[in-house]
Amino acid sequence: MKNFQSNQLSPKEIYKILSATVIPRPIAWITTKSREGNVNVAPFSFFNIVSSEPAIISIAFQDMKDTALNILETGEAVVHLVNLENVEEMNRTAAKLSKNVSEALEFEIELEKSQMIDTPSIKNSKIRFETKLYKHHEVGEKSHLFLLEIVNFCLEDDLIDEESFHIAVDKMGAVARLEGNHYAKLGETFEIERPE
């Protein structure tokens, strides 16, 4: 087995190892709004669940992106889960645009009003979480960890049984990030009974 001490690697080398080994990763496709009202749309895959009580998710940024700045300014964001129907649209929003250019306008992404926060949502989305900033932590010299509290869960009608709260995972069309330009969709699944 080859060993690499992190203090002897460049940040780029560490990123390459992490992003290619911690897979698959869900993709948070995030809308935020600046104080001036400009809507930013961008995808991030350093994203996961932190807690169900309260309902907290985490997003890590490798530097202070427009999305992160907007969350700090307004205290809110909408996190959309990427699926097979919107993955191409999501990929376009990964382009580097100047700060005053809205990805929603530039790439003609249809938005709609959110239910509980001011930041709009992406219409072409099966699952989205309306969130408010819970905590922000600086990590090292450049990275930032955001904990976002979900104040409203929005799921397409046929994805959830309202009595059992069972989610129809097979209807989600979930897409995950691998490394570089590679993505994955759900393939063969298997079940293992957990011990008591």
What structural class results from the helix and strand content?
Answer: alpha+beta
What oligomeric state do the depicted chains represent? Answer: single chain
The Rg value, from CA coordinates, equals 17 Å
The CATH homologous superfamily is named: Electron Transport, Fmn-binding Protein, Chain A
Main beta-sheet annotation: 7 strands, antiparallel
Q: Can you count the beta strands?
A: 12
Spatial shape? globular
Strand order of the largest sheet: 3-2-6-9-10-5-4
Number of helices: 4
Strand proportion = 35-45%
Helix content range of the residues, please? 10-25%
Report the CATH topology name: Pnp Oxidase, Chain A
In the CATH hierarchy, the architecture is Roll
Element string (H = helix, E = strand)? HEEEEEHEHHEEEEEE
InterPro entries: Flavin_Rdtase-like_dom (IPR002563), Split_barrel_FMN-bd (IPR012349)
Organism: Lactovum miscens
Domain Flavin reductase like: 20-167
Protein name: Flavin reductase (DIM6/NTAB) family NADH-FMN oxidoreductase RutF
